[in-house]
From TrEMBL:
Enzyme type, top EC level: transferase
Database matches in Gene3D superfamilies: Enolpyruvate transferase domain (3.65.10.10)
Protein name according to UniProt: UDP-N-acetylglucosamine 1-carboxyvinyltransferase
Record's catalysed reaction(s): phosphoenolpyruvate + UDP-N-acetyl-alpha-D-glucosamine = UDP-N-acetyl-3-O-(1-carboxyvinyl)-alpha-D-glucosamine + phosphate
Phylogenetic classification of the source organism: unclassified sequences, metagenomes, ecological metagenomes
Region: Disordered, residue numbers: 1-20
Coarse class of the protein's main subcellular location: cytoplasm
Keywords: Cell cycle, Cell division, Cell shape, Cell wall biogenesis/degradation, Cytoplasm, Peptidoglycan synthesis, Transferase
Listed pathway(s): Cell wall biogenesis; peptidoglycan biosynthesis
Subcellular location: Cytoplasm
UniProt EC number: 2.5.1.7
Domain Enolpyruvate transferase: 49-453
Keyword Cytoplasm: yes
GO BP of this protein: cell division; cell wall organization; peptidoglycan biosynthetic process; regulation of cell shape; UDP-N-acetylgalactosamine biosynthetic process
Length: 468
């Protein structure tokens, strides 16, 4: 049963739309497509591939663009986001924001660019009630809570969905917003929150949570007074969000550090902007993993080495060599990878999102590597799938012990989540014979044409739609 719905007049005096906004609008280049799950039975078939060569261009980051899209709730106007990846999570977030009252148009990127552009129109007619079935599908849906409470004083939303790594609480989001004056009614079904204008507060996170930092940022930029966020996350995607917010007129100090000081302004003083999404460092690392496992040498255009510092350093320890310039990196594989021990940590540490790739690489490296997961204890579900390919991996608590084998062999495997799915595709290229990866809808949530990009480097990989 759905919980009580909000409506009428918001606590901050804004009129709340009685009916959902209309999706899409006319014009020749305008496409406002709802999320289409018809590809959910597709299968990726990866075959043993020789060395990879050539160039791959990496688009913008999922974990940035979804938050930039949420930030457009803060002020009226027409926004343009460029370098937006063509992925399902963007479609789902667009549907969610349209249901809240924004108008979103996807525009094919001009020649010479990758991805797409999003034009987002915020006319101020927002209904802060997020449809359950959309909010439930992605983790980033929780990122509308901060801007909606900050600007409209009201939110009604399902608990966020997303990849299943075990428990993914949002207590830090809610505690931070409560410290600023919000009141929540949380059930197993969702969250209803209300506030008068939020007040600045001094908040110290128990852990540098990416999502909680983003939510608090987007709430505090329009709060009354100054907010200090201590032990904040400082991932490149958070810096990207801060940069867009600053362009909009928000006052944020300490960008890129774990202490953010935000001086709140009135939403009416903010303006809409154009912003280019930061490059996806995890997609970039996926192509490093592919060349590392198959051999060869590739250029990864637009990869920002500075955002991948610790990971590139550990990849170097495995024997991969890099040439770095401002426009990208060239990654060259060794004869055989060497094993390393690696532990995931918040930025600037090795991100948990790289881990399935690292485990796949270690599975054919020389020696034994221990991978320690410090963020999500349940993020080892793909290990069973890698074992089907012949990998020798044992799990002990939050450690994976990976004993490198001479070669993997093809098998049918299931993608359990976005990053693990991509790691299985890459492993399939290194495995002898043919590997069939199903549940590729997980991969589609975060990867922009991984098959086309890998095939462009010479990999034997294709996508098929089984007949019923
Ligand atoms: N946590 C809490 N309470 C909170 C918030 C987080 O206990 O209120 C815990 C989580 O359970 C987890 C840890 O803190 O153990 C880190 O969670 P965080 O909030 O930093 O992660 P997130 O915002 O939910 C984002 C990315 C994830 C990525 C993590 C860590 C998005 C949409 N998701 O999640 O990306 O793994 O940060 O870097 O930005 C992916 O892209 O495949 C993905 C899973």
């Amino acid at each position: 049963m759905r919980r009580k719905r909000l409506g009428g007049q918001s606590p901050l005096g804004h009129a709340i739309e009685a009916s959902p906004p209309i999706h899409g609008h006319g014009g020749s280049i305008l496409i406002a497509m709802p999320f289409d799950p018809t590809n959910s039975h597709d299968v990726i078939v990866a075959s043993h591939s020789g060395p990879l060569f050539g160039e791959v261009v990496v688009p913008g980051a999922k974990n940035s663009v979804l938050k930039l899209m949420a930030a457009t709730l803060l002020a009226d106007g027409t926004y343009r986001l460029t370098n937006v990846p063509v992925i399902d999570d963007v479609d789902i977030m667009a549907d969610l924001l349209e249901a809240l009252g924004l108008r979103i148009t996807k525009i094919a990127a001009p020649r010479g660019e990758v991805g797409q552009h999003l034009e987002i129109v915020n006319s101020g007619a927002i209904r802060p009630v997020a449809p359950f079935e959309l909010a439930d599908r992605i983790r980033a849906s929780v990122n509308v809570v901060g801007p909606l409470l900050g600007r409209f004083g009201e939110i009604d939303i399902a608990l966020p969905g997303g990849d299943d790594f075990g428990g993914r609480p949002i207590d830090m989001h809610l505690r931070g917003l409560e410290a600023m004056g919000a009141v929540f009614d949380v059930t197993s079904d969702g969250i209803v929150g209300r506030c008068q204008r939020l007040r600045g507060a001094d908040i110290e996170f128990d852990f540098p949570s990416v999502g909680a930092t983003e939510n608090m940022l987007m709430a505090s930029v329009v709060a009354e007074g100054t907010t200090t966020l201590r032990n904040a996350a400082r991932e490149p995607e958070i810096v990207d969000l801060c940069e867009m917010l600053k362009k909009m007129g928000c006052r944020i100090e300490g960008v890129g550090t774990s202490n953010l000081v935000i001086h709140g302004v009135l939403p009416s003083t903010l303006q809409s902007v154009t912003h280019c999404v930061v490059t996806d460092r995890v997609q970039a690392a996926t192509y490093v993993a592919a060349v590392a496992m198959c051999g060869g040498s590739i250029r990864i255009e637009r990869a920002v080495a500075e955002h991948m510092g610790m990971m590139l350093s550990r990849f170097t320890d495995m024997g991969i060599s890099f040439q770095i310039d401002p426009a990208g990196i060239v990654a060259t594989a060794p004869q055989r990878l060497s094993s390393i021990d690696v532990a995931t940590l918040p930025y600037p540490g090795v991100a948990t999102d790289y881990k399935p790739l690292v485990v796949a690489m270690l599975s054919i490296a020389q020696g034994v590597g221990i991978v320690t997961e410090n963020l999500y204890p349940g993020r080892f579900r793909y290990v069973e799938e890698l074992r089907k390919l012949g990998a020798d991996i044992s799990i002990d608590g939050h450690h994976a012990v990976v004993r490198g084998v001479d070669h993997l062999r093809g098998a049918s495997v299931v993608a359990p989540d976005i990053r693990a799915g991509a790691a299985l595709v890459v492993a399939g290229l290194a495995a002898q014979g043919m590997t069939e990866i199903s549940d590729v809808f997980h991969i589609d949530r975060g990867y922009d044409d991984i098959v086309g990009r890998l095939a462009g480097l010479g990999a034997s990989v294709t996508r098929i739609r089984p007949e019923n």
